[in-house]
């Protein structure tokens, strides 16, 4: 039975200098809706959130972070008590090798060196130990093929995949088209559903694993 759920949401920011950073367009809306629905179901919710303007639902334990390294540390700490993990955050794949203490001038900006961030989702999958783990995939092509590969490679129970298309802004949009795939190969295409409704569907599927 799932009692404690750990959810990640929002983007991460990887500092270049005091005024610039690497990030994504993620608003955190989806993860916060899942946290809200989980709390409505009387689950004990820990929400690890990157920078966003959203307020956490009442009664949710909110842990604010900035970088991917920050998020990794808090996720691994909170993982110990979690029965279910929903990794909805858009974690930056790269960070600067060196974050300057002063604003970088244009003349040396081209020399910025990047290093790959740790794959938090893959690490959670390796530490699974009976937990239910849900991942997300955003693709521009080969949606189901890439999502299924991610599901298997990272040892997930469920993956929620959506495609980035020019006609629709999925970042902050209230409604999405997604494909939900579980580890048994079951697929469900869901069209034009609000994120609040999708949160209910995702938790319904996740809670069936325990």
Explained architecture:
This protein has six helices and twelve strands. With 210 residues, the chain is an alpha/beta fold. The longest helix has 13 residues. The protein is globular. The N and C termini lie close together (5 Å).
Radius of gyration: 17 Å
The total number of structural domains is: 1
Percent in helix: 25-40%
Give the total of beta strands.
12
- Quick one: overall form? globular
CATH fold name = Rossmann fold
Average pLDDT across residues?
92
- N- to C-terminal separation? 5 Å
SS class: alpha/beta
Report the CATH C-level class: Alpha Beta
Runs in which pLDDT lies below 50 for 5 or more consecutive residues are: none
Query: Strand portion, in percent?
Result: 25-35%
Element-level helix/strand string = EEEHEEHEEHEHEHEEEH
Q: How many strands, what sense, and barrel or not for the largest sheet?
A: 8 strands, mixed
CATH architecture: 3-Layer(aba) Sandwich
Biggest sheet: strands side by side, in what order? 5-4-1-6-9-10-11-12
CATH superfamily: CoaB-like
Count of separate DSSP helical elements:
6
What's the structural blueprint in terms of helices and strands?
Elements: E1 4-9, E2 14-17, E3 20-22, H1 29-40, E4 44-49, E5 61-64, H2 68-78, E6 84-87, E7 94-96, H3 106-109, E8 114-116, H4 120-126, E9 132-139, H5 143-153, E10 158-163, E11 175-182, E12 187-194, H6 195-207
Parallel strand pairs: 1-4, 1-6, 4-5, 6-9, 9-10
Antiparallel strand pairs: 2-3, 7-8, 10-11, 11-12
Please tag this protein with its features.
8-stranded mixed β-sheet, 210 residues, alpha/beta, globular, Rossmann fold, 6 helices
